[in-house]
């Protein structure tokens, strides 16, 4: 198990959140605890990019939390995108019939 890490790169009109490690029920709690603080920070910018290139493993709990983060980010009025999506995310989106929702952020 690899601990989940995140880093926010901020620019004037854009924030990029880089996720690294495992996004599973065992590792997502620290990010879940700080989600409101992170989302409040992101609201000021017009574009939010969730970069998933560093995700090594994701389970159904991690995928559900990722979907929640994407939807919550979009509710701020920002343009929200995801990049470098691992195959595991695509498979979970298909499994839970959330491919259409997931594609809106591509």
TrEMBL record:
Segments crossing the lipid bilayer: none
InterPro entries linked: MlaB_ABC_Transporter, STAS_dom, STAS_dom_sf
PROSITE patterns listed in its UniProt record: STAS
Top-rank lineage group of the source organism: Bacteria
Family annotation (Pfam families): STAS
Name of the protein described by the UniProt record: Uncharacterized protein
Organism: Mergibacter septicus
């Amino acid at each position: 198990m690899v601990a989940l890490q995140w880093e926010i790169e901020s620019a004037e009109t854009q924030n990029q959140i880089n996720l690294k490690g495992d996004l599973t029920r065992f590792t997502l709690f620290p990010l879940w605890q700080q989600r409101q603080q992170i989302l409040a920070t992101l609201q000021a910018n017009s574009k939010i990019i969730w970069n998933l290139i560093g995700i090594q493993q994701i389970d159904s709990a991690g995928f559900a939390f990722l979907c929640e983060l994407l939807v919550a980010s979009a509710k701020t009025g920002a343009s929200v995108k995801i990049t470098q999506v691992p195959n595991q995310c695509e498979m979970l989106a298909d499994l839970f019939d959330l491919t259409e929702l997931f594609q809106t952020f591509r």
